[in-house]
Design brief:
Blueprint: H1 3-17, E1 21-31, E2 34-45, E3 49-53, H2 60-68, E4 75-80, E5 83-84, E6 95-98, H3 110-117, H4 120-127, H5 145-157, E7 163-167, H6 175-188, E8 193-197, H7 201-207, E9 210-215, E10 218-222, H8 225-230, H9 236-242
Parallel strand pairs: 3-8, 3-9, 6-7, 7-8
Antiparallel strand pairs: 1-2, 1-4, 4-5, 9-10
Helix pairs in contact: 5-6
């Protein structure tokens, strides 16, 4: 099944079982009179993993921060079903964001961080995770980069939010942990909607149900890998490698 067919499958599935939809429209953002985002539209359903592609510096992180509400812009419209999301407070328990930068507090043990960040019903899931258990007594500053990223991802995914924005989730993790994270996100998509970006496009193409490309300030839906070739984002050789 190609990306286009998968996209319409999830759209139909969503309408049948009445899952929530994140709807983003008319986002415009400029820095120093230069348009970074121009009239951006993107949507995501619960049960869908949407991959956000784009070259470094194209504005992917800016878009995610703007949707979440931590970055202001000239114009935007964000809603989840009938709930208008104008800022971080409006999106509480509906929308959550994993930034590129580590956010865990220092001088606090992992066990205490989990209890601080998560509701009781989700604490045990993370506390008992096979990759988290060995770190529970450690403080954040004593964790490896991969351990920090894994814990941060689990905290964001197991928050109460219905929609999760992941910015470079595979940053600093080993290939084994990368594969684990991909499987974990897939296992959670029946409960959540995801928009994910990463500097390694192969991770996103492998994981996503549907793809969009941010290029020259505009967002384009991608229905096949050949469209990425036509846009100059990947080469024919890359397509062959991805299809192996």
């Amino acid at each position: 099944m190609d990306v286009y067919s998968i996209h319409w499958f999830y759209k139909s599935y969503n309408s049948i079982i009445d899952l929530k939809t994140l709807h983003v429209d008319s986002i415009t953002k400029s820095f120093d009179n230069k348009n970074i985002l121009t009239d951006i539209f993107i949507s995501c359903n619960q049960g869908e993993i949407k991959g956000l592609l784009g070259r470094n510096g194209s504005g992917k992180s800016t878009l995610l921060k703007t949707i979440f509400g931590t970055l202001s812009c000239q114009n935007k419209f964000v809603r989840i079903d009938d709930k208008l999301i104008r800022n971080v407070s409006d999106g509480r328990n509906l929308l959550n964001y994993l930034p590129q930068e580590n956010f865990l507090p220092n001088n606090v043990t992992v066990k205490a961080i989990i209890k601080l960040f998560l509701e009781k019903e989700n604490q045990d899931i993370v506390l008992k995770n096979e990759h988290v258990k060995p770190t529970l007594g450690k403080k954040n500053q004593h964790l490896s980069g991969g351990e920090k990223r894994m814990i941060e991802i689990l905290l964001i995914i197991h928050s109460k939010a219905d929609f999760i924005l992941l910015d470079e989730p595979f940053n600093g993790v080993s290939p084994i942990m990368r594969d684990y994270i991909i499987k974990y996100i897939r296992s959670m998509k029946s409960e959540k909607g995801f928009i994910i970006t990463d500097h390694d496009y192969e991770n996103i193409i492998e994981l996503a149900d549907s793809l969009v490309l941010l290029q020259d300030g505009y967002l384009k839906s991608i229905n096949s890998l050949q469209e990425l070739v036509k846009c100059g984002y990947i080469t024919e050789a890359s397509v062959k490698n991805l299809n192996k």
